[in-house]
Amino acid sequence: MTDSRTLLRHTLATLAYRGAKAIRNAGPGFADYGSPETSRTPAKILAHMGDLMDWGLSMADGRREWHDSAPLSWEKECERFFTSLKQFDDYLASEKPLQAPAEKLFQGPIADALTHVGQIAMLRRMAGVPVKGENYYVAEVTVGRVGADQAAPRKEF
Fold first, then answer.
1. CB of 18 closer than 8 Å to CB of 136
2. Per residue in 48-57, is it b (16+ CB within 10 Å) or e — as a string?
3. What is the pTM of this model?
4. What's residue 154's pLDDT?
5. What does the domain layout of the chain look like in residue ranges?
6. How many Å apart are CA 44 and CA 134, to the nearest integer?
7. Total Cβ atoms within 10 A of residue 106
8. What is the distance between the alpha carbons of residues 43 and 123, in angstroms, rounded to a whole number?
């Protein structure tokens, strides 16, 4: 596996770790928090994150397909996000050739999804269900661990 694929996989594991923390225990009603007329709700943001992972996978395998999905229930959308993240990671872990530059996969769908994790965390604070801060440098982020089941935080504040 090339260094760039390993870095992409580590970035997806980081996205899973941070994403799991941002969406876990958000509480009833959080999915629709905010003003849908002026901004995306958390459910729409999470649906977009799943779309981004699907798009990343499609570019990696040469299809370049984009879909704008309507959000599912919060629980189903959480499952969908981690499923699409795993499918993307599985492709990167395979011997199949990348049909798009690793740098473009990072700067497009992956970096965009990391931004959206921050939006969800910010909306949680605004909704009164904040996520604890954490020293992510010491977090246990493991390549290939891209599901909802993540290591416990090592140093929250």
1. yes
2. bbbbbbbbbb
3. 0.96
4. 95
5. 3-138
6. 25
7. 17
8. 11
Q: Which residues contact 65 (CB under 8 A, 6 or more apart)?
A: 54, 55, 58
Q: How far apart, in whole angstroms, are the C-alpha atoms of residue 141 and residue 150?
A: 8
DSSP for 46-93? HHHHHHHHHHHHHHHTT------PPP--HHHHHHHHHHHHHHHHHHHH
Separation CA 45–CA 23 (nearest Å): 11
CATH 1.20.120.450 fits 3-138, yes or no: yes
The residue behind tokens 């795993």 is 86
What's the pLDDT tens digit per position in 46-77? Answer: 999 999 999 999 999 999 999 999 999 999 99
Provide the 3-class DSSP secondary structure of residue 111: helix
* Helix (H), strand (E) at residue 35: none
